[in-house]
């Protein structure tokens, strides 16, 4: 995935290893490179344990990478420390899966929304009501909600407060890590519509991590497919079902879109034992589950190759024939 003049944030060759046992290690992200474009949504999909959240935590500076860089407008933010890092945090904000756990239950909505601004000394206490009203309006909640406590709200309403709080510092990039997964389908749709609306209004750049492939397809301009720490395919979101080429992406898609699927049969589970698989850097990580695997797949890791504009696949199969 190539950097363009509109690239805001670049994940550059990120490796994240976690220690396992006494001397072992597990690679949660293996040389991942991705670009976030101004005003666009980059969706990241893949089964549980493939490394999506770890990657987003590195982007958010909640985890340090083992190697690689995160470039925000060309500056490596993994090297930032102290006040520079604190100030940088305003640029990239995150909405968590369950905002309830992130909120102080003793704080009123207006305090929750305004806390980041007060922390940065950007408003005075007397301005809280005015700011809370503006942001409640943005997330389509009535102004009276400012005096409520989080436990007096529904899950969807709480998530709207989470979005308001994340946007109050006017970040350029918003990371949504399974931010709608805990909600009912109809509420999910409302939240996604709201995020799409805010994205257009603010030209917001979004990173969208989600299990729901249909939702990602609908929302993301570009989708990156992750398997055992590796990006195996990158393609335009709205063409995901039509253009998917990597055998893993196709398997994911068929599990979602095949209406003739026999649901009485168990869906094949991901092998979560990542540790001994991913560290074989001389092989394709998907080879053991791939019906199309050839001899080369066991001895060489395929790199991402461009197959058409905005479409990259990491597979030894020849897609030109
Ligand atoms: N702090 C940690 N220490 C050790 N291993 C970790 C740590 N954090 C994550 N992992 C491992 O790294 C791998 C990737 O985890 P991660 O949470 O990034 O996956 P994910 O794709 O976001 O999964 P999910 O969708 O279930 O949240 C997993 O095997 C996980 O067990």
From TrEMBL:
Plastid as UniProt keyword: no
InterPro entries xrefs: AAA+_ATPase, ABC_transp_ATP-bind, ABC_transporter-like_ATP-bd, ABC_transporter-like_CS, Oligopep_ABC_C, P-loop_NTPase
Keyword Nucleotide-binding included in the entry's annotation: yes
Keywords assigned by UniProt, alphabetized: ATP-binding, Nucleotide-binding, Transport
Any one of the GO BP annotations: transmembrane transport
Domain called ABC transporter: residue spans: 9-253
Gene3D superfamilies on file: P-loop containing nucleotide triphosphate hydrolases
Record GO terms (molecular function): ATP binding; ATP hydrolysis activity
Family affiliation: Belongs to the ABC transporter superfamily.
Name recorded for this polypeptide: ABC transporter ATP-binding protein
Organism: Intestinibacter bartlettii CAG:1329
